[in-house]
């Protein structure tokens, strides 16, 4: 299982998805974007994230789950338990491993009942790097909020320039307050 905000999806997420795929047994894995949506940290709604992720990560598109019932990691784990899984492996960024270990193990035998829960890191992040290891959704949101398309595009595969431009605009627009959005309403264009 890979569960996260993916808001917005970045080239850094490719490493996570490849790790969850390679660590799965018999290609049995899912990728679950959270349903969180707010202007500051989660500017893209779930449907938009899933659509972009399927285009951005075509190798994993059939494994990306768009289910309104999977709002939290607990929902995902409860469903896996109900589906008959005795164990689960969760892959996350190095900054999420301890959080996933604490949360998932605290609620085992309470919300779900697994024989084993394994948390695996997709690798370390280097916030100072300009490569995949340094890419983060936080950097993407910051670049979008500042209107910095050049920096934003560093987190988008070069083959997806058009989608990157659209994603930048969507992320930027979503970060505006509702009052600011009203200025851009097709029925209320103020100059």
Structure commentary:
- By secondary structure, this protein is mainly alpha-helical.
- It is built from eight helices and four strands, in the order βαβααβαβαααα.
- β1, α1 and β2 form a beta-alpha-beta unit.
- The C terminus is likely disordered.
Short description:
With 191 residues, the chain is mainly α. It has helices at residues 11-22, 46-56, 73-82, 97-106, 137-145, 149-153, 161-175, 178-183; strands spanning 2-4, 31-33, 87-92, 116-121.
- The number of strands is 4
Beta-strand portion reads: 5-15%
Class per helix and strand makeup: mainly alpha
Shape: globular
| Strand order within the widest beta sheet | 1-2
Element pattern in H and E: EHEHHEHEHHHH
Describe the main β-sheet briefly: 2 strands, parallel
Which consecutive residue ranges, at least 5 long each, have pLDDT under 50?
Answer: 181-191
Give the count of helical stretches. Answer: 8
Helix fraction bin: 40-55%
Radius of gyration: 18 Å
- The average pLDDT value, as a whole number, equals 86
Measure the end-to-end span.
48 Å
List the helices and strands and how they pair.
Elements: E1 2-4, H1 11-22, E2 31-33, H2 46-56, H3 73-82, E3 87-92, H4 97-106, E4 116-121, H5 137-145, H6 149-153, H7 161-175, H8 178-183
Parallel strand pairs: 1-2, 3-4
Helix pairs in contact: 5-7
